[in-house]
Amino acid sequence: MGNPLQLSMVNFNKGAYIIVEGKQKADQFFIIRSGKVRISKEVEIVEEEGGNVLAPGDFFGVVSTMSGHSHIETAQALTDVTLISVNRDNYTLLIERNAPVAMKIIEAFSRRMRYLDEKLAQLTFKETAEPDPSHLFYVGEYYARQNQYNQAYYAYYQYVKHVPQGKNVQTARERMMKIKPYSKAVHLDGDSEVFTREYPKDTMIFAETMPGRELYIIQKGSVKITKIVNDNEVLLAVLKAGDIFGEMSLIENKPRSASAIAFEESVLLAVNQENFERMVQSQPQIIARLTTLLAERIWFIYKQLANTLLSDKVGRLYDALLIQLEKNRVPIRSGEAYTFDFGTRELINMVGLPMEEGNQAMRELLRNTKLKAMDNRIHVTDLEEIDKQAKYYRKMEKIERARKQQKRIS
User: How many CB atoms lie within 10 A of CB 317?
Assistant: First the structure.
């Protein structure tokens, strides 16, 4: 039988606070057995899908517990409630014993992730369009202009395949003929029989807006996740061995929301729907890893969404640096130096500012003598300075918001 799965029942009276936003060290999450719970955030960034009142069968606190970060929400009992408390260390066991609960959590995470992703794209990149596979042609055009022929060939190929009647099909075919000798695009059609796949450096694994039916686990190498926005390549993440990506298309059968490109030579394990359902049963540790990964991403997107609400552009840059520190679990100690693994341009892209405005805010930020930009990296001589500045700007925003609210009331 193995270890017993220990779940405890906890009761809260009406009005009691169960978890509080911003509090560190979340090590358990809750499934509602009876009663109702309200979820709220200090800054309601976006209206939650499905509303903010949870009922029996719903769960909360999973994002912070599984990502190991501070809570991103407050939960308060609307009635007397009985909850099942699940410790992080017990999650793998819970999946082993109760695969449907794991699937429910993963599906809910995936929906939440996509919803938040769309909101973030609308706020930072001012995008509202539904993903349209004809965008693949423009992805191809972007990479062709950059002389990145592996990516260009892959995107053109997917465009011709998925939009056979598209107005640019003839052009795409001509471009493909021209760049074929210089391109080493691989696995153009995927391969349902081959699950371990090799990708040379700078080859595309999938392109944004194409349909997807697989998720990938990185066995070796690294993969960058990017998006072409306003004719610029925006770097969303660099993933390493052990990371999982592409899960949203598999779980929800939706188009790819970004592109994945081998950052160095990589070996990936491709998992399709059939394998995935078997894995839930047979390899709970991979499912636990996927839950943790989704939790990390949701936590990070909430932080990025909150960042878009800061009206001071310099404040947004400080806040983005603090989010990166928290994301990478860098302890904030007075007098300690740190070098971020990105430069000023990436930081401006991260907060979605137009380059001109971003450069101006950046110049102002670098007036702070504790920060320097060198060798395409941002360096800080005292970590506490970033924490102090970010908190100052957040506080000023809060005061300003309260003042406006007061004005509206009066």
Answer: 30
User: Rounded to whole angstroms, what are the CA distances from 87 to 1, 34, 194, 274?
Assistant: 19, 19, 37, 29
CA dist., res. 322 & res. 332, Å (int): 10
Based on the domain organization, do 262 and 141 belong to the same domain?
A: yes
Contact between residue 344 and residue 362 where contact means Cβ atoms under 8 Å apart: yes
In this structure, are residues 247 and 215 in contact, taking their beta carbons and an 8 Å threshold?
yes
Q: What's the pLDDT at 3?
A: 61
Q: Nearest-5° angle of CA 8, CA 329, CA 361?
A: 130
pLDDT tens, position by position, 365-405: 999 999 999 888 999 999 999 999 999 998 998 888 888 87
Instruction: Enumerate residues 6+ apart whose C-beta is below 8 A from 323.
Output: 300, 303, 304, 307
In a domain, 277, yes or no: yes
77 is written with which tokens? 């009992």
Same domain, yes or no, for 267 and 331? no
pTM (whole model) above 0.85: no
What band does 1 get if pLDDT is binned at 50, 70 and 90? very low
Per DSSP, the residues of 103-136 read HHHHHHHHHHHHHHHHHHHHHHH---PPP-TTHH
Residue 121 lies in a domain: no
At 178 the three-state DSSP class reads helix
Contact 207, 102 (CB under 8 A): no
Looking at the structure of the chain, the number of domains it has is 3
Residue 300 has pLDDT above 90, yes or no: no
Q: What is the tens place of the pLDDT at every residue in 302-358?
A: 888 888 888 899 999 999 999 999 888 899 899 999 999 888 888 887 887 888 888
Letter for the amino acid at 22? Answer: G
Range of the domain at 168: 128-282
The 10 Å Cβ neighbour count of residue 268 is 25
Tell me how far apart the terminal alpha carbons of the chain are, to the nearest angstrom.
65
The one-character DSSP state at 230 is: T
DSSP-assigned letters across all residues of 2-25 = -S----EEEEE-TT-EEE-TT-S-
Q: Which of 57-66, 117-126, 386-395 has the lowest mean pLDDT?
A: 117-126
Residue 352 region by backbone torsions, left for phi larger than 0, else alpha for psi between -120 and 50, else beta: left
